[in-house]
Design a protein that fits this description.
By secondary structure, this protein is mainly α. It is 40% helix and 1% strand. Among the domains are: 60-165, Cytochrome c-like domain (Cytochrome Bc1 Complex, Chain D, domain 2), CATH 1.10.760.10; 224-302, Cytochrome Bc1 Complex, Chain D, domain 2. Strands 1-2 form a two-stranded antiparallel sheet. The chain binds heme C (2 copies).
Length: 303
């Protein structure tokens, strides 16, 4: 290629590029990539059905219409009565089990809206051929699954107009998370260093948490006596093993308290009856055992 031809072709390339860029440069904020989605393409993605029925196509069907279809396309996995085959999802029953340790969540026991059933079957079922059903078939299988849950009659025609009116038993079972921590304010400035935050047994929420100036941490450390008691003494004393007097039980402690603190410390250090010296924890210092005795006294004298 001659030098001239070469430079001309560069020029051509530049002009061509310039043209492409120009072609898209009209719309501010666009970079000239991709293409606008067509209405058809958008319709292919925009298939969600709202709880109020918005998005449903025209049409309708009865459970009767859906029975054979369900048997044919769904029962192999979900069972003829929605009972679930093997480990495939159960679609019916389970009412009243949501508060049990093993709730059975089905369309009837758990789902809040019938619209979701239409939406789900339409977009995802049959499992091996999603989006293969016609709208009429989706109405028919949706109706049949509702029928299996005793939510509509066998001859009820489920339609675009009335689908949203089907009352699902668990419709009031969903609510905004009302646990206290979801109300915590996010800190955006002057926040505490994560490492400086201690876990407290009783968290306090400050009004002014995001100013970063208010220390809200309340640390409830167990006292030494309480800690020693937990480790070395509670094994017998908490439950009264071998007649060990239970702290706080005034009948068991009144006579012992009358002996005086020194005598009680003496017993704990050296043992008494079946209680071994230091409760069997000879590695404990006398001071540690004394602190545990004081802790026990504090609980028992209160009563
Ligand atoms: C090859 C097995 C198979 C077939 C056939 C099948 N499904 Fe499913 N179905 C599944 C599986 C697996 C899931 C769970 C999918 C998941 O959780 O991602 C499911 C989930 C569902 C759910 C949601 C259950 C829930 O509570 O989460 C419904 C409703 C449902 N299928 C309806 C149908 C209908 C109606 C048909 C027939 C048109 C059908 N399925 C055909 C396997 C199947
Ligand atoms: C193996 C069980 C056991 C353990 C462990 C134990 N105790 Fe006791 N404790 C007893 C029994 C039983 C008695 C009642 C003894 C008696 O009056 O015969 C007792 C009594 C006492 C008394 C009253 C003593 C008195 O003179 O009436 C004190 C105080 C006491 N324990 C403190 C402790 C402390 C502190 C610890 C932990 C360091 C501890 N115990 C660990 C079983 C235990």
């Amino acid at each position: 290629m001659s030098r001239l031809a070469k430079s001309l072709s560069y020029v051509g390339l530049i002009v061509a590029l310039g043209f492409v860029i120009d072609g898209h440069a009209e719309e501010a904020g666009h970079y000239g990539y991709g293409q606008d989605a067509t209405a058809e393409q958008i319709a292919g993605w925009d298939i969600d059905i709202r709880p109020d029925g918005m998005g449903l196509p025209p049409g309708g069907a009865t459970p009767e219409d859906g029975e054979m279809l369900y048997e044919d396309k769904c029962a192999s996995c979900h069972g003829s009565f929605g009972e679930g085959v093997g480990r495939y999802p159960v679609l019916s029953g389970g009412e009243g089990t949501l508060t049990e340790a093993r709730p059975e969540k089905t369309v009837g026991s758990f789902w809040p809206y019938a619209s979701t059933l239409w939406d789900y079957i339409h977009r995802a079922m049959p499992f091996t051929a999603p989006e293969s059903l016609t709208d009429e078939e989706v109405y028919a299988t949706t109706a049949y699954v509702l029928y299996l849950n005793d939510l509509i009659e066998y001859d009820f025609e489920l339609t675009q107009e009335n689908l949203a009116d089907v009352e699902m038993p668990n419709k009031d079972g969903f609510f905004f998370d009302d646990r206290p921590d979801v109300k915590a304010k996010r800190c955006m400035k002057n926040c505490k260093k994560p490492g400086s935050i201690k876990i407290t047994s009783e968290p306090e929420i400050s009004e002014d948490a995001d100013s970063g100036t208010v220390e809200t941490v309340v640390v409830e450390q167990p006292t030494e006596g309480q800690a020693v008691y937990q480790h070395a003494c509670s094994v017998c004393h908490a439950a009264g093993v071998g007649e060990a007097p239970i702290p706080g039980d005034s009948a068991a402690w009144s006579a012992r308290l009358a002996l005086g603190r020194d005598a009680l410390i003496e017993s704990a250090l050296n043992g008494k009856g079946i209680m071994p010296a230091k409760g069997g924890q000879s590695q404990l210092s006398d001071a540690a055992v004394t602190s545990a005795v004081d802790y026990i006294i504090s609980l028992s004298a209160k009563q």
